[in-house]
């Protein structure tokens, strides 16, 4: 009898171990959700009236090349498309990349002039006042 009791105790211990494991993993089998701390850094407010920030050369390349890969709905998932585009960007030489850097630099210059004008407006002053009140 004692051997059977030991065996049944081992089974119950195993069941307890696996049940506690599932609790740690969560109901979906993945890790448990972690809740954000109350004193966590607040999301930075964006000024809706400010000019859009300039895009990088890589983003210009992506927008130019993405059309030839189609969309993620076409059977290929977005991650694979992004990996192929990244490999293509790394394979480009400096002369091929130059056109995208030129577009990026042009956008940066336009952004700088637009921001200089925007800083003088009342919308900018109102937004800065909101920021001071928030912090």
From TrEMBL:
Q: Where is the composition biased (Basic residues)?
A: 31-43
| Cited InterPro entries | ChromReg_NeuronalGeneExpr, HMG_box_dom, HMG_box_dom_sf
Q: From the UniProt annotation, which stretches of this protein bind DNA?
A: 51-119
List every stretch annotated Disordered: 1-56
Biased composition, class Basic and acidic residues, residue ranges: 1-18
Q: Name one GO molecular function term.
A: DNA binding
Q: Name one GO cellular component term.
A: nucleus
Supply the Gene3D superfamilies for this chain.
Answer: High mobility group box domain (1.10.30.10)
- Is Cell membrane tagged as a keyword? no
For this chain's UniProt record, which GO biological process terms are given?
A: regulation of gene expression
Which parts of the sequence belong to the HMG box domain?
51-119
Q: Which domain of life is it from?
A: Eukaryota
Q: Does the keyword DNA-binding apply?
A: yes
- Record's keyword terms, sorted: DNA-binding, Nucleus
* PANTHER family the record matches: HIGH MOBILITY GROUP PROTEIN 2 (PTHR46040:SF3)
Q: What is this protein called?
A: HMG box domain-containing protein
Recorded source organism is Pristionchus entomophagus
């Amino acid at each position: 009898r004692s051997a059977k009791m030991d065996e049944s105790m081992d089974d119950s211990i195993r069941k307890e171990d696996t049940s506690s494991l599932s609790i740690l993993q969560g109901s979906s089998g993945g890790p448990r959700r972690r809740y954000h701390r109350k004193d966590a850094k607040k999301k930075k407010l964006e000024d809706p009236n400010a000019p859009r920030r300039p895009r990088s050369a890589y983003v210009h390349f992506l927008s130019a090349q993405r059309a030839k890969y189609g969309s993620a709905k076409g059977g290929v998932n977005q991650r694979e498309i992004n990996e192929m585009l990244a490999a293509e960007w790394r394979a480009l030489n400096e002369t091929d990349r130059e056109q995208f850097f030129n577009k990026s630099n042009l956008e940066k210059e336009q952004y700088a002039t637009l921001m200089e004008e925007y800083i003088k407006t009342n919308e900018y002053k109102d937004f800065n006042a909101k920021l001071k009140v928030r912090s």
